[in-house]
Amino acid sequence: MRATLEIHNLAKSFGGLKAFRGVSLLIREGEILGLIGPNGAGKTTLVNCITGLTKPNEGEILFEGRPITRLRPHQICRLGIGRTFQVPRPFTYMTVGENVKVCARGRVDSKWLLSLTDLWDKRDRLAKTLTFQERRLLELSRALAVEPKLLILDESVAGLNPAETTHMMKVLRRVREEVKVTILWIEHVMKAIMENADQIAVLHQGSLIAHGPPREIANDPKVIEAYLGEEYRFAGAQGC
Question: Are 29 and 182 in contact (CB under 8 A)?
Fold first, then answer.
């Protein structure tokens, strides 16, 4: 499979504080790459560099072989990179359907998209009336409306209860199967990421300390010590 996204020796600092350094990643077409690590490890800053909200100090980012490191966010979006945010950001006084249309890169089939994310029956409701789970689904819908080739998810199941998490995982599997999109997924809910990712990369204190299949990551001593904890060694691996 060809590479959708390549990151080469990326570094970002804010004054004297290093968010991350020397990060290199490759995401292949059609795969789900999970990005995990403690709070403050640099995960969201890395995503912000990919999407153009933040510019790295060093390194290069290639999307389908094209350099995008110095492009502006709207240029990167037009190339086919969509993202969600940790905190959903809908236009609260627009309806669900209007939120999707205003984010669409072209003529999007709203019925198909909102059916995919289980929001078609709520298409005429104002976004401000949605539950938190529904706002998460709307955030996903808005990201899909740009017709992405690469979909970046920033903690899509954070704050959801177990039943809502299970539902979101079903929706994401449906998205992968029907949209055929490559996914970079930041997540702290290990059950979700371990059961759905093809590969997992681990950031810790600004450095990439591991990259591999979920079962391998779940039993990596460096990852257990830095993030997962000893109790996860076998319990986590059994679900992989």
Answer: yes
